[in-house]
């Protein structure tokens, strides 16, 4: 407990790996005013894979755990590189990026809330930290890429999904459910809400890209998106 | 002192409440390329109400005090919701948003500087922390909303006002004036400078919105602002 | 070592001074939709001079060292003011801004990596912290000024140069080379790579401005740059 609490390394690294993969896939699909070069794609993978955890630890007043071991950066970099390699074929499997995204925000949210609870934060801030951990990597990504911040404009869905998962985790914890089980339920809740939201809107995975293309055409405001 | 120093909870919560209210009022009046949904407005209220305090504590190397109690988030959320409810009638009382804004930056600046002094920071960094606490929430808000950062383009006024209040607080503190009295003087100074600046420019509260509309028309650069 | 480690004050202040100078020179040359006022230029000088060090210390979980002494802010402010005064004549000495920039990122990168090593971070995170310290001030500057984030779009060069310098420092440290000597080699490596990259691209210092002007003309996306 307290200082000694550590999320199991394999779980944390899995989240980082999926985040790095998703970030690189997302960035590979981006066509802006200037295409991102390969390093840019790798940076976005890193940011998306590690950003949530770093924001979580800053809010908790701890040294970022992801910088106390070589493994996080190695994992995030490797998965970002993998994402770049497989981006072209995988873009056809449209649902994959959305699905990965949903699972990643679920994982970051659950880890953020768990760590906050185990460090003794009250329940409301614990949920807040979970939401920030879940959406923080995406906010950093959008700011670095000069995109509208998704969580504000598209993605109330993100915040709602992350908030619901984090709140469920807190409730289950108060009811005495072990953190691991509560975490699994929280990840599932967040991911399912996010995926249902995408389905319910009848929006394709490229929804945001398409939307951007339309907005770009109408307003000239957003980096022009040429046909993917 | 030191670790044990806490700004009185009621004062801190009042600042957070006014910040949440102002943030929600500001965001409600925003018409961008996509109108913010209700959750977006609430998020901006939260960010504006709590951002300054979190930035202050990060710069001071402390755990964010606003996450050690349920009250801050509850207060900020409630006041943001209140702001959304009363946004429509209140937008006619034009001066209110500007006035609230002036008081809020005054409060955050004074609390930031006080906490820095009481934690033993030298006087120049104490003023710096106060200014960052005062304008930080607004910077986060603008970045999340994709607006030009007000403190850079419009709001030298903000930085000057916050700097003057924070510097006065430090001087009064060095002269032996109790923190509470010095804080009141600092808040008043910041708020008055900011309000005088708005008056002196003969600019209405909507100044920024109007300005934006003009810039948008001329350059297509800023989210098109349709008639409020 | 550990908590007691401090980069020599004169070296740290030199980096801050050069950063403040470069930031102010950069911002003075900026013509956006609204010209920055003098305070805006000073703020950018401060942000560029101090941003890297603050980000470094946040990632390391330490109180920002730059806020524990009056000297950093005084130095950064003074050098930013100096930069504003000499901006007009100096803009003719085109290479100077680019050269300063290269040295500044070298210094911030080397200090970031050194501090990380001496605080006991593993080698990969130590390089990461160095890169973040090197490019962090520039990212903050670009976000505040509403510019595309240079490190993503133009400046893979920045990240590569900073990464190479930081990695060299780590390798030399592992080989037993004293930190001071390793640091000098790292700064030189970063600066030379960055300068060679600029040369090799046959790009003038104004490259980014010119590029922006073209992009602005083509897309209306970036603040219109009128003749410098």
UniProtKB/TrEMBL annotation, chains A, B, C:
Ranges annotated as spanning the membrane: 6-26, 38-59, 94-111, 117-140, 152-175, 181-204
Compartment(s) where it occurs, according to its Swiss-Prot or TrEMBL record: Cell membrane
Keywords attached to this entry: Cell membrane, Membrane, Transmembrane, Transmembrane helix
Glycine transporter domain span: 10-87, 100-173
Domain of life: Bacteria
Principal localisation: membrane
Keyword Acyltransferase: no
Coiled coil regions, renumbered to chain: none
Membrane topology: Multi-pass membrane protein
PANTHER family noted in UniProt: INNER MEMBRANE PROTEIN (PTHR30506), UPF0126 INNER MEMBRANE PROTEIN YADS-RELATED (PTHR30506:SF3)
Protein's recorded name: Trimeric intracellular cation channel family protein
Native source organism of the sequence: Amnibacterium endophyticum
